[in-house]
Design brief:
Blueprint (H helix, E strand, L loop, with lengths): L1 H63 L15 H5 L5 H5 L3 H5 L6 H21 L11 H22 L1 H18 L6 H4 L4 H18 L2 H18 L4 H23 L13 H9 L13 H13 L1 E4 L7 H14 L4 E6 L4 H11 L4 E3 L5 H11 L1 E6 H4 L4 H11 L5 E6 L11 H11 L1 E7 L8 H11 L1 H4 L4 H5 L2 H7 L4 E2 L24 H12 L3 H5 L1 H4 L9 H4 L3 H16 L2 E6 L2 H14 L4 E5 L5 H13 L4 E6 H4 L10 E4 L3
Parallel strand pairs: 1-6, 1-7, 2-4, 2-5, 3-4, 5-6, 8-10, 8-11, 9-10
Helix pairs in contact: 1-5, 1-6, 1-7, 1-9, 1-10, 6-10, 6-11, 7-9, 12-13, 13-14, 28-29
Length: about 650
């Protein structure tokens, strides 16, 4: 009897254990479904608030838009009688009924209908074209709500990306196991008719499920998932939401652009032929190693680089070529490719290192400076992204990587070679070009970055393409370029993608901030050390420019004594290639004198200023007019107190502030 009771108790205990196991699995499945449902729900809410904000902004425009402007939308629209009757703005028409308009002497049924239709058409156009401005001062409630939803959406999407493998396991492995366990954990009258084979199948499935659910990887996933769901659901007050926006405006606006605008325009796809565009669009980009959020056109650019394998990304200055390249590197790392190499000018090595740290989970090694050889050995052993200069690249050979990788058993090729400022290798006979060509041959993928419009430099473009796709280079002719930029881009589409700001205007914020980092030169360190020893704070702020003699550099060598000045000249040069105008601001007169002379080394006939507090009003306006009227790239240097207040400098697309 006691044995019988003990047997029953064991059966009950086993049954309870099975049901707990199934409940455990169901709870995990519920949490995963909850996570997977968030992006669509949150995106829908963002779109709803976006429509609400656009409607409000458009209505504000309608209240100020004179009724007479409706005459521009349709010929013969009779507005005189309505204006005489007191209708002054388009908004007043929109709130009126057809009957109210018809009651105005001289306004018939046709006129009333036409005027109302025109007003609604203008309102709809305003709603679709308005650009949202997030106001940190007023902190509008609807904007606060939208920013909070954007952060929640970002968390949900990031968790989705990071848990993709585990979510797939839940469907492919855990769910079938649960289905086999269900019969042996059901009511007694169902279990009564199970065969021994069915019971054995259920017991084996239960053992497998137990092993899976107690696996450290699954335990970590469940813990991470639970924490992520709590964070997604957590209420955020206005202070937290707006502080987040201050810190991550570009990131959040990128998410907003992706949700609301997407990346579907021909221009946003660089006018690629449909076949290539569809192939790129269908590609799935793994962003699990990326900590930044991509705008739609940026995701498309990263996917283009991966799909086309050996190509040039030629987006206009400021659109984010660096983040697109990093997204491609992150995808390759997620797929098991452990090594990549970035080659760039010395002035942007530090910036690449900081961007990798800021926007990715990738390891990086700088093969430049005193620790070059040690960093090289570390990269060979551990992998990650190596960053070196064009001259530094010549010190290393692809054979070093192949040998080291072969010893580690990972295969002997480079996942991707990224060449920034690729016009540095336009001369095929130069040593740096030969070094790049050698490494390009050892890489599975090669991505050249350049903001220079290539349709204006056919010979240079042909030389660059020859590194990547020689068969395309043979097709590039001056005739193709004469057909215009769109025709040129379509002709070289397999190897070249370029978008300018107008192409992706709807996805861009009003301002794209960029924090550039440079390593100080020995002269910079000396100037800064002297300022510190004198306890002169204002001198410390501008020490990186005081490493240049009074009056400014006489040549490129002297300009190179200041790392900041060297980087400034790079920016001015790149902007000039794009035909963009630059305003350089500083708080200090002596800094302005130096950067004005330095800028003249790059653009000898296109530097205006300096504009300072002592510049007479008429001369100030003359300098600004000269900047606007100058054909192509140009520079204006100005003191912040003088040029930053009360003057309209809309001609400038790039603004540089010299000091922190």
């Amino acid at each position: 009897m006691q044995r019988a009771i003990a047997g029953v108790q064991r059966q009950v205990a086993d049954l309870q254990a099975l049901r707990r196991l199934l409940a455990d699995h169901r709870q995990l499945a519920v949490e995963v479904r909850q996570l997977e449902g968030y992006p669509d729900v949150l995106a829908a809410e963002v779109r709803r608030v976006d429509r609400e904000l656009r409607r409000a902004a458009a209505w504000s425009q309608m209240t100020e838009l004179p009724l007479g402007r409706l005459g521009e939308t349709a010929k013969g629209l009779r507005l005189g009688a309505l204006q005489q009757h007191g209708y002054a703005t388009v908004a007043q028409i929109l709130v009126a009924t057809t009957w109210q308009l018809q009651s105005v002497p001289g306004v018939g049924d046709t006129t009333a209908s036409q005027v109302l239709a025109a007003a609604r058409q203008v309102q709809a156009a305003a709603e679709s074209s308005v650009r949202l401005h997030f106001d940190l001062i007023t902190r509008d409630a609807a904007q606060t709500s939208m920013l909070g939803q954007l952060r929640r959406y970002d968390l949900a999407m990031r968790t989705m990306d990071e848990s993709e493998a585990m979510r797939a396991w839940l469907v492919s492995t855990a769910a079938p196991l649960a289905a086999r366990i269900e019969p042996i954990a059901g009511p007694w009258h169902q279990r009564l008719f199970l065969s021994r084979a069915q019971k054995d199948v259920g017991q084996r499935a239960a053992a497998d499920m137990t092993r899976h659910l107690t696996d450290p990887g699954v335990v970590h996933f469940r813990r991470t998932l639970g924490a992520a769901l709590q964070e997604i659901q957590r209420h955020r007050n206005a202070d937290e939401v707006w502080h987040d926006y201050e810190e991550n405006a570009a990131h959040l606006l990128g998410i907003l652009g992706e949700i609301v605008e997407g990346s579907g325009s021909d221009a946003g796809r660089g006018h690629l032929p449909q076949e290539i565009a569809e192939r790129v669009k269908a590609f799935t980009l793994d962003q699990s190693f990326l900590t930044a959020s991509l705008r739609g056109y940026q995701a498309f650019g990263a996917k283009y680089a991966l799909v086309q394998e050996r190509s040039i990304l030629g987006d206009e200055m400021g659109l984010g070529k660096t983040i697109e390249a990093l997204a491609a590197l992150c995808h390759l790392r997620a797929g098991g490719q452990h090594r990549a190499l970035v080659v760039c000018p010395a002035s942007v090595v530090t910036n690449w290192r900081m961007e990798i740290r800021r926007h990715t989970k990738l390891d990086s090694s700088v093969l430049h400076g005193a620790d070059r050889d040690r960093s090289h050995r570390s990269w060979l052993e551990r992998g990650g992204v190596a960053i070196t200069t064009f001259d530094g690249l010549r010190r290393f050979a692809p054979e070093d990587l192949r040998a080291a990788v072969d010893e580690g058993g990972r295969g002997g090729r480079l996942g991707m070679l990224v060449v920034d400022e690729a016009h540095y290798v336009k001369n095929p006979k130069a040593l740096r070009s030969r070094a790049v060509a050698s490494w390009a041959g050892a890489a599975d993928r090669v991505l050249f970055l350049t903001g220079t419009p290539m349709e204006n430099r056919v010979d240079e473009f042909r030389s660059l393409i020859h590194h990547l796709q020689p068969e395309i280079a043979q097709r590039v002719t001056a005739t193709a370029a004469l057909a215009g930029p769109v025709a040129f881009q379509q002709a070289v589409a397999p190897a070249y993608l370029r978008r300018n700001q107008l192409d992706v205007l709807n996805e861009l914020p009003e301002m794209i901030p960029s924090l550039d980092w440079v390593d100080p030169t020995p002269q910079d360190l000396h100037a800064y050390g002297s300022a510190v020893s004198e306890q002169a704070f204002q001198t410390m702020r501008r020490a990186a420019y005081l490493s240049i003699p009074d009056g400014g550099p006489r040549d490129a060598t002297e300009a190179g004594w200041s790392a900041k000045t060297g980087r400034l000249l790079d920016i001015i040069g790149e902007a000039n290639e794009e035909g963009l105008k630059v305003v350089v601001f500083s708080y200090f007169r002596d800094v302005l004198d130096r950067v004005t002379r330095a800028a003249a080394l790059v653009l000898p006939d296109a530097v205006h200023g300096p504009l300072t507090g002592s510049t007479p009003p008429a001369e100030r306006q003359r300098l600004i007019d000269a900047l606007s009227a100058h054909p192509g790239g140009a520079v204006l240097t100005a003191q912040i107190e003088a040029g930053g207040v009360g003057l309209n400098m809309q001609a400038a697309s790039v603004v540089v502030i010299c000091e922190p």
